[in-house]
Amino acid sequence: MTLIEGVLKDHVFIDFGAEILYGADQMYLDHPCRFATVAFELMATSLLCEIADRTRKDQGFKPMHPMDEYTDETCDQKGFYNFYIGLNDWSARKCDSCIEFIVVNSDSEDNEELYTIDLGRDEEVAMYNRLDEQCRQHLGKSCADLLAEAKRRMEEDQ
User: Fold this and answer.
1) Are 108 and 63 in contact (CB under 8 A)?
2) pLDDT tens for residues 53-73?
3) What residue segments make up the domains of the chain, in order of their start?
């Protein structure tokens, strides 16, 4: 197991209590090209929240959790983050190139803003494998099965 795989195994979990979203997106190269997508909400683990807090702190916003010079009293305790990741049948690695997070219930000016945590190529592959492992375990379906279902739904809607 690589370091990336170990970190994802310990800190990335699909929230199976949230709805899995099947959809379609499109890209314009010379003409529109539609492709199937599947989106998951992720649980807000301590690592994902710390990355989100550091991202926002670097932009001058208070973190949601105590860190560095911020204490329980000086951080934005009422706010929280919603994390999302998607699959798609457009890219070679079948995984989005980032984890998205939204700032929720914050008193900061960036409330409801969308941020990204970029993933490198190896991280995309490891993330896909982590999501696939969880889907097989909890849904009895692979990520490829879910993408095929999204593609069927997309074609039925045309």
Assistant:
1) no
2) 999 999 999 999 999 999 999
3) 3-121+133-156
